[in-house]
Amino acid sequence: MNRTSIIALLIFGAILGYFLSFGPDTTQKFQAGAYQLISPFLTKGSGLNKEITSVRGKLKSLEELEKDNGSLRVENRQLKATNQALRDVEHEVNRLRHALNYRERSVFKLVPAEILTRDSSTWWRTVTINRGKEDGVEGDMPVVTDEGLVGKTTTVSKNISVVLLVSDENCKVAASVEGTREQGIVSGERVAGGLTPLLNLNFLSKQANLHPGQKAYTSGVGGVFPSGLLIGTVKSFHVRELDGQAQLNPAVELSHLEDVFVVTGRK
Amino acid sequence: MIFFIILLVLAFIAQMAELFIPPLPWLFNAHVYIAPVIVFYGAVVLPFPLMLALAFFAGVLLDVLTVQVIGPRVEISLGSSILIYGVLAGIMHGLRPLYSRGRWEVHCVMCGICTSAIVLAQYLMITFRRGSVFFSKEVWWQIGGPGLIAMLISPLAFWILHWIARATAYPYLPGRSRLEYE
Hints:
The complex is a heterodimer of chains A (267) and B (182).
Chain A: H1 3-20, H2 24-68, H3 73-105, E1 108-118, E2 126-129, E3 142-145, E4 148-156, E5 161-165, E6 173-177, E7 183-188, E8 199-204, E9 215-218, E10 230-239, E11 244-250, E12 259-266
Antiparallel strand pairs in A: 1-2, 1-12, 2-5, 3-4, 3-12, 4-5, 6-7, 6-9, 7-8, 8-11, 9-10, 10-11
Chain B: H1 2-20, H2 35-45, H3 48-66, E1 69-70, E2 73-74, H4 80-94, H5 96-100, H6 104-130, H7 137-167, H8 178-181
Antiparallel strand pairs in B: 1-2
Helix pairs in contact in B: 1-2, 1-3, 2-3, 2-4, 2-6, 2-7, 3-4, 4-6, 6-7
């Protein structure tokens, strides 16, 4: 090893040591700053990704239409394409109208946000949204849709935030089950086998005897999540050595999220 | 130097692209990792100081995108990916003489193994933090899957990078070491 390599190794070690010494606050500040730097790439990439997905979606629908209208395929191709485009616009309008209605009737102050990236790594269930400090978003704010709870914000930069999904093992939510006095803590699984992850509702009493279909809501304990937000529905219940555990299907389809709301307070 | 800058840019683009590539449901939701393939290629063709610089850059990027600060604690410290990349790139750099003899297939296999090693290291770190060690079939696939994919795409990636190296007149083949002459 020559002298240049040794010097390079020493510099590498020194910078590495410096990084490893960062505490939570410095780490979060560094991460927020870095997210701010890469935010133009994330926004552009998200737009490009949506365009590609939409083209793929259109081709699929055309295939289905072709099956149904085999004999009229050639004559109607142009018409079908126009219809498809209009249908996409209609779907978009309906989705936004739905979201707007929810925002208006909600008791919370909601900041609408769009998903930029999702599930960027193997072991953490997170998404990034296009809202940040400039929009009044802060760390540990609940994120919801009209269907239920999505998760909470962690790192927040000027105009991008990271949302820890309710399906992550680290996102712990105090919950109560409808029609019972049962309370527990919901958290995700470390490793999800399927596309739709399940949630675990732990620390229930052994006598809870929950039935499939019962709904679990946030109980408001802990201060991060307000009470009454739907988390999911019970899929199964089993008794463990010390407590009862229920598996929940999340209320929100987390793998297909497009728009969410950050709860910044009450109206 | 131009080739080194190109590798930095490609590593950045690959890291950004990974964010938009969905996990593969038919491979137990394994993720596709492209950036490590570029870094490990760089580890083979770059001189030691530049290899460390590339590993550092890729490590910082990976850390920024994966580090989770949950309340008052950091799940994986900022810098851990730099360390992992540094060690693994160092191992790849040690296999440089083999590459100069034209045995690039060894590096493709190693590229896959090292990619899986990154995911395994992350899993071990979070397991250490959260407790309850378990290795299910899903866990093994989510660790092995990215390595398998990296192994499969590495010949094509190496060929493209090799072509870029030639186009930029980079003297990519390392000189024969004294050990080989003896």
